[in-house]
Amino acid sequence: MELKNILLAFIPIFVAVDAIGVLPIFISLTEEVEKQQRIKVIAQSMLTAVCLAVGFIFLGKGVFRALGISMGDFMVAGGAILFCIAITDIVNPLKRRRIPGQELGAVPLGTPLIVGPAVLTTSMVIIPQYGLVATLISVVVNISLAGIIFSGASAVMRVLGEAGTKALSKIMSLLLAAIAIMLIRKGIAELF
User: Fold this and answer.
1) Any idea where the domains of the chain sit in the sequence?
2) Distance CA 7, CA 12 (A)
């Protein structure tokens, strides 16, 4: 049963992380960075993403209680944000940013690109459905997968091409929009 929950938790987190969609941005941000420095950037982005996601998973409910936010409130708000992110990704074909510096792995790669509102919202919402352990495992595996994809960035881009990467990113954005609507629907049902 636990393996099934991990697999079920893996899918929405995979869509939310969208490592393939972030890949062109990663390449754009690191194209002038030497190979050794690129490895450090990937490690920094993964560490930042894991710390943020795991911290939010453990502290999120406490923050909710302190602020008087219910899970239904969070689901509706998170779904609305996810929907906006998905629509922006679908209609905005250029997600390129140039941010050089030592913190490149932490910001913008670790957060908000790998772990941003989509991952945080999705992880909080799937904990009651699939359990804390399954959610933690799926988050860590997906962040690790993003690191592996970034490590093989040039090979992935050669196989998919820029057009293939963009097309896959759009499909992921459509799935994210559908997940957002589901979150809003479930949040409204929980509120009433």
Assistant:
1) 2-191
2) 10
Chain segment 69-120, per-residue pLDDT in tens = 888 888 888 788 878 877 887 887 555 444 456 788 898 889 888 998 789 8
DSSP for the chain reads -HHHHHHHHHHHHHHHH-HHHHHHHHHHHHTTS-HHHHHHHHHHHHHHHHHHHHHHHHHHHHHHHHHT--HHHHHHHHHHHHHHHHHHHHH---------SGGGGIIIIIIIIISSHHHHHHHHHHHHHH-HHHHHHHHHHHHHHHHHHHHTHHHHHHHHHHHHHHHHHHHHHHHHHHHHHHHHHHHHHHH-
> Torsion angle of alpha carbons 84, 87, 91, 96, nearest 10°?
60
For residues 31-63, b (16+ Cβ closer than 10 Å) or e, as one string?
eeeeeeebeebbebbbebbbebbbebbeebeee
Rounded distance between C-alpha atoms, residue 2 and residue 9, angstroms: 10
